[in-house]
Amino acid sequence: MIFEVFKNYLQERISLTGEELRFINSLTSEKRIKKSHFLLQEGEYSKDLIFVAKGILILDRTDQDGKRRILKFATENNWLREKESYSKGTPSSCNIQAIEDSEILIWKKEDFRLLLDGLPPLKQLMKGLIESSQIANQDRIFSSISSSAEEKYLHFIAKHQNILNRIPLFMVASYLGLARETLSRIRKNQSIKKN
């Protein structure tokens, strides 16, 4: 059962009673999705908060040249939503797609608000996660404007070593804002340095 993964995730971080866990479960939808399936496409409205129990999802956006640019990878025990559409109720400018067969939990916005209002420990956990996400986004922006291509790649390896072999090279390049050829050259140079 997918919810068991989430239950373990919560119990490692906050203290909840059996009744509180049942309350969360009652408002939670489980979903198994196939690789390449879209959970959200540009122009649709984002109304769901997603927790990844297994697999990898991406959040991406199409640039003015028609290229999809990856903004975020969400792997096991990570949350994902398209923030602007979710918060403002506007059409999404992004896509959410599975890049592996995945198992996820989903909450409608109004249901998750009920959970936050009724469960102060969950509300505190989410507040901490939002703060951590904002710090990570700030660090990523700084890295993208101040680091060399090689430094960006090394930073990515350090932060995402556990999923590096699960993500196609062109997606890593997209996430880093690099041409695929540039990333291939950097990887080749890194391999030479190690030998």
The rounded Rg comes to 18 Å
* Number of E-type strands: 8
Instruction: Look at the structure and give the CATH class of the largest domain.
Output: Mainly Beta
Helix content: 40-55%
Query: What can be said about the biggest beta sheet?
Result: 4 strands, antiparallel
- CATH architecture descriptor text of the largest domain: Sandwich
The tally of structural domains comes to 2
Mean pLDDT: 95
CATH topology of the largest domain: Jelly Rolls
CATH superfamily annotation of the largest domain:
Jelly Rolls
Strand order of the largest sheet: 1-8-3-6
Tell me the distance between the termini. 45 Å
**Alpha-beta content class:** alpha+beta
Shape: globular
Strand content: 15-25%
- The number of helices is 8
Order of helices and strands: HHEEEEEEHEEHHHHH
Which regions contain 5 or more consecutive residues with pLDDT less than 50? none
Question: How would you describe the overall organization of this protein?
Answer:
With 195 residues, this protein is of the alpha+beta class. The protein has two domains: 2-145, Jelly Rolls; 147-195. It is 50% helix and 22% strand. The protein has helices spanning 2-11, 18-26, 83-88, 109-118, 120-146, 149-160, 169-176, 180-194; strands at 29-33, 38-40, 48-54, 57-62, 68-74, 78-80, 94-98, 102-108. The strands form two sheets. The chain has a four-stranded antiparallel sheet with strand order 1-8-3-6. The chain has a four-stranded antiparallel sheet with strand order 2-7-4-5. The radius of gyration is 18 Å and the shape is globular. The model has no long low-confidence stretch (mean pLDDT 95).
